[in-house]
């Protein structure tokens, strides 16, 4: 029989690529979505949809029990659903922490504990680490996130770690980019309009991971059957603060670009104003307090050795190749 996999957040950037790979590998693939979720990247007729209300435990319990009665249990769950931008910072905790706990609790209570529960977390759970010596962040470092997003993901991690014998696997990717991604798209869009903005004048070491390599790591974890482990994900390289924009400029045809670099205090002021203005309009802002803290952080190095050694993780895309594919997709799909 086919092994079944539930992918929450399936309509999102990473989730939609996970769904495609699960189908390619022959899984009975369930896309966890909300009623209002876009399905523009979920058109394969083999996809099976399930609506999950992780904000209400009683509703979620009924949904899972009905699935167990009619379809059986999930062999694997990849929890990719989450919020990266919110109008109210309290919503990060509600979505990324509380709803993760609700899903885990209901899976256990409904007798549907999967073989593995794979949680897509973030490098931001560590916050600024080794800002003076630029050593890679490792699992031995203390997790002290300085963003609401990072704190909410850390709470979810800690809950998983507190459950005795629960078969979790945590992935902490650095900046994930690729086709369909919208945050780095904002940078590409700005550069296409001849403007590139950077923050701070001190050295900044950046890391990235192409979306296909995140997908690779998830299915390697399934293949290896690991559990109760956490892994950092990057492409294994370290880049300067200008490398990403330089590659975008090249892929857009080496157009002229006005480069502006702001001191951090100025960026903080602009970020707070942008967040305040967006909140009054009932919208989210690309520039906000969390984004400021992320841009302020100087060291984004992380140690992927455990993933390489234990999973056989081998990043297939460096930034040069990944940006080329990403910008090509943006052009082909009329985003640029």
Explain the overall architecture:
With 336 residues, this protein is of the alpha/beta class. The chain has a domain at 4-181 and 209-235 and 299-316: NAD(P)-binding Rossmann-like Domain (Rossmann fold), CATH 3.40.50. 42% of the residues lie in helices and 15% in strands. The chain is built from 11 helices and 11 strands. It has helices at residues 13-24, 57-71, 90-109, 148-162, 183-192, 211-224, 243-251, 264-280, 289-296, 305-311, 319-332, and strands at 4-8, 28-33, 48-51, 76-79, 116-120, 168-173, 175-177, 195-199, 208-210, 229-233, 258-262. The strands form 3 sheets. The chain has a 7-stranded parallel beta sheet, with helices on both faces. Helix 7 (243-251) packs across helix 11 (319-332). The longest helix has 20 residues, at 90-109. It is globular. It starts with a strand and ends with a helix. 41% of the residues are buried. The mean pLDDT is 94.
Explain briefly what this protein structure is.
The chain has helices at 13-24, 57-71, 90-109, 148-162, 183-192, 211-224, 243-251, 264-280, 289-296, 305-311, 319-332; strands at residues 4-8, 28-33, 48-51, 76-79, 116-120, 168-173, 175-177, 195-199, 208-210, 229-233, 258-262. The chain has 336 residues and is an alpha/beta fold. It has a domain at 4-181 and 209-235 and 299-316: NAD(P)-binding Rossmann-like Domain (Rossmann fold, 3-Layer(aba) Sandwich), CATH 3.40.50.
């Amino acid at each position: 029989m086919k092994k079944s996999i539930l992918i929450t957040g399936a309509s999102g950037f990473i989730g939609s690529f996970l769904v495609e790979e699960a189908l390619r590998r022959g899984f009975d693939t369930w896309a966890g979505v909300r009623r209002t979720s876009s399905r523009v990247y979920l058109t394969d007729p083999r996809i099976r949809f399930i609506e999950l209300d992780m904000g209400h435990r009683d509703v979620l319990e009924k949904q899972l029990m009905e699935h167990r009665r009619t379809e059986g249990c999930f062999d694997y769950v990849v929890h990719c659903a989450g919020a990266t931008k919110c109008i109210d910072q309290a919503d990060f905790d509600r979505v990324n922490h509380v709803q993760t706990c609700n899903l885990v609790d209901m899976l256990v209570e409904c007798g549907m504990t999967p073989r593995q529960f794979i949680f897509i977390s973030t490098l931001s759970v560590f916050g600024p680490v080794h800002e003076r010596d630029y050593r890679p962040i490792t699992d031995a470092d203390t997790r002290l996130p300085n963003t609401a997003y990072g704190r909410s993901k850390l709470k979810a991690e800690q809950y998983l770690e507190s459950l005795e014998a629960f078969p979790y696997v945590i992935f902490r990717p650095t900046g994930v980019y690729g086709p369909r991604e919208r945050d780095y798209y904002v940078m590409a869009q700005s550069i296409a309009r001849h403007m590139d903005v950077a923050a701070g004048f001190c050295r900044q070491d950046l890391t990235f991971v192409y979306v296909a390599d995140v997908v690779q790591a998830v299915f390697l974890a399934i293949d290896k059957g690991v559990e109760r482990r956490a892994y950092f994900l990057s492409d294994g390289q370290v880049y300067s603060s200008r490398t990403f924009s330089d590659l975008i400029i090249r892929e857009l045809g080496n157009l002229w670009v006005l480069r502006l670099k702001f001191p951090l205090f100025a960026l903080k002021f602009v970020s707070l104003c942008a967040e305040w203005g967006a909140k009054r309009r009932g919208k989210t802002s690309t520039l906000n307090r969390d984004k400021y803290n992320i841009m302020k952080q100087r060291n984004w190095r992380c140690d992927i050795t455990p993933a390489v050694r234990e999973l056989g993780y081998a990043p297939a895309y460096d930034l040069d190749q990944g940006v080329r594919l990403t910008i090509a997709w943006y052009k082909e799909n009329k985003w640029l």
